[in-house]
Amino acid sequence: MTDSENPDKINWFAEIRGLAVMLLAVLAFHSLVAKPFYIPSTSMMPTLWVGDRLVVSKYPYGWSWASASFHILPRSATRVMPRTPEYGDIVIPVHPERDEDYIKRVVALPGDTIEVRRGQIILNGTPVKREVVPPVRIPFEPELLCADDIGQHPCLDSYEQFRRTGPDGKDYFDPPTWRETFPNGATFLTIDYVDQELDNFGPYTVPAESVFVMGDNRDLSADSRAPLPRGLGQGAVPLANIGGRAEFITFSLDGSTTWNPATWFSSLRGDRAWTTLRPAIAEGDAPRTN
């Protein structure tokens, strides 16, 4: 009996080939177009919360070794169809020593001289506009856990001193909040309430083909201000080491998800879905160029 006479016989070669083609197509899409990203830490609060799931586009700045999913390519300075980020873009830099993705915001471009004094960014000799605004309201979510070198702990325990009970009877955190506005009009919120070593940095001139990045949570961000191995090395990130740009949140979970299907819906933060991660442009400022 031939294969054509036995329709129930499985052609394993064809099955494996089809699976391989599908996996290659997914890998290509993730490497060239877009991929999902999960927020595991508080370094980008208040913009990004632990539990946010978002989409990262791979093409805005061209492609490099950092674009490839799982970092399967060797490190290189080569970029294909390169472009430079703008102030305020949220990008995915790869750690200079480990194949580990970070997520930070661009605060200085190639050729800029950046300095940080008492938490305020000074860009090319001019202080970036920074004003106190009403505190952001972050919900108290005790089941939301983060991991560090010691172990797991509640992600928001550093905000305990700012815990309040709202009119609805629920507990919230309201940490001190600032609004920063950059020369291109990009404006966004940051959290800064601790006097620490990273509040003073530079002056430092950003090399060509590089950008300086910082987290929106200026108190708890291992970024371009921070030394290795935990930070990005007290210096700029080569553009070849940036794997993409954060675009929007798809959905967000508050940490209470369990195997019980009922929690799959109750743990959703519905008001965060589809939130854009492109910075707003302050009224009266020039629009972005890309």
Q: Quick recap of the structure?
A:
With 290 residues, the chain is mostly beta strands. The protein has helices spanning 12-32, 263-266, and strands at 34-38, 52-57, 90-93, 104-108, 113-117, 120-123, 126-127, 129-133, 138-139, 145-147, 152-154, 163-165, 171-173, 177-181, 186-191, 201-205, 210-214, 237-238, 242-252, 280-281. A hairpin with a 2-residue loop joins strand 6 (120-123) and strand 7.
Descriptive account of the structure:
There is one protein chain. With 290 residues, the protein is mostly beta strands. The protein has helices spanning 12-32, 263-266; strands at residues 34-38, 52-57, 90-93, 104-108, 113-117, 120-123, 126-127, 129-133, 138-139, 145-147, 152-154, 163-165, 171-173, 177-181, 186-191, 201-205, 210-214, 237-238, 242-252, 280-281. The protein has a 7-stranded antiparallel beta sheet with strand order 1-2-19-3-4-17-18. Strands 7-6-5-16 form a 4-stranded antiparallel beta sheet, with no helix packed on it. Strands 8-14-15-20 form a 4-stranded antiparallel beta sheet, with no helix packed on it. A hairpin with a 2-residue loop joins strand 6 (120-123) and strand 7 (126-127).
